[in-house]
DNA sequence: GTTTAGGGTTAG
């Protein structure tokens, strides 16, 4: 089915020119001129679009040959393709995994990731005007969201980006289907319509000052706008303009999609959406920024998103951000939610008593915690949404009403101090004033803030989860595990936690509430990732985001981009500059020799070699030079000044170790570090450069089993002590990687039966976390447990045990 | 190729 991207057969100019001849992927090498050649393959992996400084991009993809002649090897040949600049941007927008692509105008380089991915010893590099990609897409199924318009026309048949145009709210033609941006001035959370769908209501505005109602009907909750407060910004695609009651309204239509953004200036640019293939470019970000500053100038943003319990007043309506601790049905039209937000209400909170054994979550808490817990009675239509909630969820309840405790409540209310100054809360039936409940994603700023407040609650109010619920059957906590082996059987791990908790079976553990610590005796059934280098991640302690370690192909591309076409550069006054003489090898890309810049201050104290700034070198050269200098900071010229490379590349090389910075949290400025007598290390360099240092961490998912059940658990914060290696060492040396490999092989021998897997004594914590957008789940992590019996170490460290 | 709702407090 023809698309507006450069599809083969979509029209003149879209065809691969006839004079080009195709080369099989398996024959790609460096000794050929590829100017009249093409390579064809299916996109089997499409990396993220990585933005570099000054509006430049890089993207890595893997294509696989589908129709290569049958060969001895069963696997189809595949190759890494690295795209630069506008081509990378267009490719990111126009091409999907599974598309068939033909590349031409490429050069061939050595693949720096070949040792790791074993794909192909060479890669294809596409940059400049000659490079282009022809795309064909397997015909069905048709995509209803096919882009409506194409970007600038170009002679060069490279992929064309689909381009959306956005209508202002004062320029909507009845009957047309439009895309638009707006600031939310009123909203209702999705509620059940009388038809088949959930219905959301929005009212949005923009710089035209028009206010336009918008109704969204979708069956699935996740397809609805994720609007959490007035002032949020939405980007709507494919809404139909209609007139109702002489006013313009918008209604979702086929191919509808929506992104929502925080409306505050300086807020996150991360859009909230369930759409897996949305596109967001520089222009979109600019539009959001413009709407944010306009919103601020108009005073549209509420000063505080919601009212804390500490400020709740009788009879007032307000929105509450809180955590659900427990819930219980009262009758068919009323459910009790027990919630807290870490603040103390100025009025005593009324506790609604319920029947025994109907409470989901603990039925009582420590006295200190009880005094902070509010009773929320939700009625009628909200009973159904309350059914979806789980204890531990973070909620926003809209249009909650504070009721003085003297009011009559269902169930029995605590008698002490009856009637005076006790508060409880009602969520009345209906959706007027946006009344409703929404689960907030765990990563949202508001939830992070809520958690900070809760964590600051004094200790005596904090031990609630260790306060045992008397109604819980005792055997849950005292029965020995139904392990097929006796307690005396050796364990290959050891707990160091010091908790005085009896081991439980996995099925018992699964029935317990989150927030507890458990001891288990289990075997390892399986684990992910199987390719252990993928267990290594980068973690930012500031924004708490985790990311993959960029692979060498991508990093090499960044170095190569940074050193092409060097601009004239003014070096900082404190830097002493010189050149590195290249060793003889001829590079694929002719380039100036790299330049080095030293701190004069360090030179004065004879520490010049301890820190050098290096400009114009390849990744390979930088690694070589890292052997001779303690700290190497790769730099480039941007706008005539010395700056760091894009933060997807390491900002510092120390021997074999590389250090990365957080893109979100760093404010980069190349400065001379202030020196004292101390050793210059990654922390000092990061601080001087305004880089928020990312930490290497290990993250694995283990599937545990015992006689009763299986359980997926994470090994993350406890991973280094579990394996007895540091993640930083794993990133830099093979021995540390082997140690993990051997440990996993010993705990879960390849092809081994359950009988061959050793038993492990582990300490687990259970907690609530968001696993998908808006969906919280109980997760488990291994803590304070150490492998005591790794497999016997073979003399050759690289050979797996078996 | 479009039913549902189309904002504006329950009344416990």
UniProtKB/TrEMBL annotation:
Cellular localization per UniProt: Chromosome, Telomere; Nucleus
Single GO BP term: regulation of telomere maintenance via telomerase
Pro residues: compositionally biased ranges: 137-147
Residue stretches of biased makeup (Acidic residues): 459-472
Location of region: Disordered: 135-160, 459-501
Recorded GO CC terms: nuclear telomere cap complex; nucleoplasm
GO molecular function per UniProt: G-rich strand telomeric DNA binding; telomerase inhibitor activity
Keywords on record: Chromosome, DNA-binding, Nucleus, Telomere
Main localization, broad class: nucleus
Domain of life: Eukaryota
InterPro entries: NA-bd_OB-fold, POT1, POT1_C_insert, POT1PC, Telomer_end-bd_POT1/Cdc13
A Pfam family the protein falls into: POT1
Domain Telomeric single stranded DNA binding POT1/Cdc13: 166-296
Family: Belongs to the telombin family.
Protein name: Protection of telomeres protein 1
Record organism: Zoarces viviparus
Biological classification of the source: Eukaryota, Metazoa, Chordata, Craniata, Vertebrata
